[in-house]
Give the backbone structure.
Amino acid sequence: MPDNQVLISEVGPRDGLQNCSAIMDTETKKRWITALAASGIREIEVGSFVSRKLLPQMADTATIVAHARTIPGLEVAVLVPNLKGAQMAVEAGAHKITLPLSVSETHSIRNIRRTHDEVIEEAERISALIASLPQDQRPHFEGSLSTAFGCTLEGPIPEAVILTCAERLMQAGCDEVGLSDTTGYGDPASIRRLIRSVRAVVGVENLTGVHLHNTRGLGLANALAAYEEGISTFDCSQGGLGGCPTAPGASGNIVTEDLVFMFESMGVSTGIDLPSLLEARQILAEGMPDETLYGFVPDAGLPLGFKQARATVPAE
Amino acid sequence: MPDNQVLISEVGPRDGLQNCSAIMDTETKKRWITALAASGIREIEVGSFVSRKLLPQMADTATIVAHARTIPGLEVAVLVPNLKGAQMAVEAGAHKITLPLSVSETHSIRNIRRTHDEVIEEAERISALIASLPQDQRPHFEGSLSTAFGCTLEGPIPEAVILTCAERLMQAGCDEVGLSDTTGYGDPASIRRLIRSVRAVVGVENLTGVHLHNTRGLGLANALAAYEEGISTFDCSQGGLGGCPTAPGASGNIVTEDLVFMFESMGVSTGIDLPSLLEARQILAEGMPDETLYGFVPDAGLPLGFKQARATVPAE
């Protein structure tokens, strides 16, 4: 991706809705995703294939994937905790599958009840499943290093542990790894440091995305640091919806609206039309009336005389 | 100042309180300033010498300056709109005087009813006043370029206008100029660009501080960009109190608590003890019960295993 462009990966329909107690109905999800894509978002994590009992918010993920696949040019991503989830993702036709591996083993066990060895075994099984598919039906497979900047249960995780996890995910057959600040512990210096260390192990081309939270207000500063390190894919959530239910006190993804505004202001094109993005927020607000939506740009509005990096409203 | 240290300049008692409709009583102001200084803050803008009719919140500034001067090691700063204010500041014994010059002439006229020429004349008169004082009683004199990143009335301000303003302030006798994002229009790229341009005109040593707002959520990202450009003094406000009353929709200074957390996390020492800083916030919250206080760190708390860049709690 060129220096002056980034890929905004909207994770609200997954990481956002999954952390709300209310359940957004399937039709509203579809309308929201359609509106997000219409604003120019080219990758959306639309759901996760997890136990319906544990996360009833995600029970309609197959239906949502089917809908999202009808939107031209949209990369349809899902999260899966294991092989079973990956099988469902493949069946539904997801373009991208993300498997989280919490570098904090305590958090991994608490979150998905698996040790590092067990998650790596799932990664190997998922890779084998993908390899068994015809070439043109293989989803992109990312291993996400969660709690990479520290864990609310363990505190800081030794870098050697993180690098081992990254290396093992690649060896298990992932196409790339991502770095997740699940707990909002990262800062611009640690973001830079870890990106460099992980890239030294897996290769620059195999770490292109970060998933940052805004728990302590550093989300955009951390995104800036990551961008300056050459990261080109940024997860974020409309209205800052979401967080991590098993990490107490850790809530709040980076707000898509503010992140897009930052990049566009800097002359870095996101391909997203900000007024259209703010319209999509209305669907979220109406669909989840009891949720607090975050973001400064939606309240303050765009600066007088503001011009986006490049006008790229997709044709209807 | 060494690379791994910054000076946090708390402007809450001035920029914060000045923008609240309620008035904090003098004793609470004193307690708050004392608590801020006790947390390790070494520069506080404690008030402004302005018309009591226009800003009754600032009517006790002379008393507050006198109190703040009793705190050992504290740089006591005030804002003045004109010579008369500077005379009062000198009389009260302020260590630092800031005169704002809005690079948007429309905003300047709206805010302090003066054209650029008239503000420059005031700067010359203030310089003459300071020069007339014995050497050891001369306050530091800063000219602050406000609305430097755009104006809610004029939009973007041509760089040539800003550079002319900077040069004229220095010629008028200011010791340095500062850059103010009064409206929250700045972004990391424009912050870097303007710092470089202004320094090319006034010299690196004559632009060391920035005053950033968080109106559109970019405050910390902008501060990071400024830090990376070599800026060492950062204005901010506890609880994000404040903004600019004459720029509609523009509210919210950078939150001191989050800014200090960012720098300390990065290993950049602020000299401020975060738990003590959070205690000072309680005094503000109790003193201004109707004001919304911003900040993520106060809600989320410090990360497990968090260590500050350097333990520097001042002795009682």
In short: The CA atoms of residues 26 and 258 of chain A lie 27 Å apart. Residues 311-316 of chain A have pLDDT under 50 and may be disordered. The longest helix of chain A spans residues 116-131.
